[in-house]
Records
---
Amino acid sequence: MIIPILLVFIILSIVIAFAIGGNDETFATIYGAKTLTMKEVLILATIFAIMGAFFLGQAVSETVGKNILYIKITIPIVITILVSTAIWLIVASYFELPISTTHATIGAIIGIGLFLGGGEGVNWAVMVEMALWWVLSPIIGFVVTYCTYKIIHKYIINKLDGFQDFERIERIFAYVLLGSICLTAFARAGNDCSNAVGIVVGVGDVDINLLLFITGLSLASGIVILGRGVIKNLSKITELHPSTAFSAEIPTAIILIGTIRGIPLSGSHMLVASLVGLAKARNAPIKKGLWKIILIWLLTFPMAGVLAIILYGPVSLFF
């Protein structure tokens, strides 16, 4: 690959990874439960973003880059997809709304595939498998969180004797919550990095380990510089304590499974659905403005596709 073009790919991947990090809400529950300060959240998020991208990112990146399109992946296609994804991510992060970076990237890929190859330009078998996971993820998040909260409340919280017992149990849950979120952050970094480098991997002739390491650094930078807004916003969806926050984190184990299997998943959809399930289980109020989050979810896939189609013409003129 020509060196200047490779540099363009890397720069765009860095921008996207930075935007993904800025939209990462993984630590929202532990921050909302007041278990960690924002400074502690950002330190841990940085560590696990770099580790997750480097050690877990290859499988999902190859799925995104090599298995979705049946058309030949050219330089204009790669740049169009990267730019489209970056634009939509930056718009969402500006409004502090958690979106699915996976949907943004896949939406752009599908838009280009349909535009250039028609119905035969897309590997629909792979898309159907992804879509099934996308539909199941929020459902699993809601149901598992709802049931987990009910079980914890019935068999643990309701049997406590006094405030001291409650504090002791909440301290235990705080440590368990911390461990589960660190695991989730590790898995999500491995899954989300595919949205920054996956399509570049599809071109071939690039050092994927170098790309993954750079992506991890960029994810971490995005979290530190922009991410606190989204973390604070999502942490206010419903009132949280360590035990209730842990209930919302249980379903995110599916992200680790998906990452290992090479399936790009939406951690944002999973977590928001989990927090809604938690609020319903507790009969607690849900923060106003949830409809904005859902609306931008629905818009992400088609808007990324339309952006890719619009941008492909101008991009192809320059590359």
Note: Residues 3-313 form one domain.
---
Amino acid sequence: MRRALLTTFLLLLPLTASAQNLPSKQVTNQPAAQNAAHAPKLVEPQLHVSRSGNAVRPRVALTFDACMGQADERILSTLVRERIPATIFVTARWLKKNPQSVAIFLNNLDLFELENHGQNHVPAVDVPVLIYGIAAAGSPEAVRQEVAGGADAMLAAGLAPPRWFRGSTAKYDPSAIRQIREMGYRIAGYSLNGDGGSLLGATVTEKRIAAAKDGDVVLAHINQPTHAAGEGVARALLALKRRGVEFVRLSDVDGMGDDNTTQ
């Protein structure tokens, strides 16, 4: 009897041990599948400006996100010195920390169009979700606050009322797009990601932006002065100018975005 019990115990031991040491993906796949089933449909809209149709003078819209942190003087000084127009999307957080850069924008309104990047740099998605590790607004009320709070901060800083909005991560769900459009904004997608969220190296960033095509809307960042990408952006601006590119702001020409962001 004792021998039979011992044999049964030894037979069950491997099974118990293997059950306790299942691969992590087997343990976590069920919650992941459940989360995926309830995750909202997210879109990352594209935007193009009307093409010049001139092979030797392609039209490009430069857009820069000023999310938080400090201004990247490598980029800002190049834009001013070379008289290159651009559209800058600013958050309330960035405006508060960079009054000197705001003054430069205000002194060069022939170059810069300032638009709304939100109050606290949270994704404009109206259900709770993480995007690149950033918690989305999470409700229609929070989306409205993110958009309206960004606009209020711009007015308080002496800037013109914004007409375009670009949310953090540039991702949205369709219902948030409808809400933002009903608030009177066009939503600024892009066609060329120039700096990979300011995480690319200088050489790759320069190559990407310098290759912009007729009608492209370039997305880059002007708030990461310690990142190598900013050096690449500055060099690419000079390369585009040498190519004879016609630089435009979003308000200068017609723009067409998908996912009902501009229509």
Note: Residues 47-257 form a domain with the TIM Barrel fold (CATH 3.20.20.370).
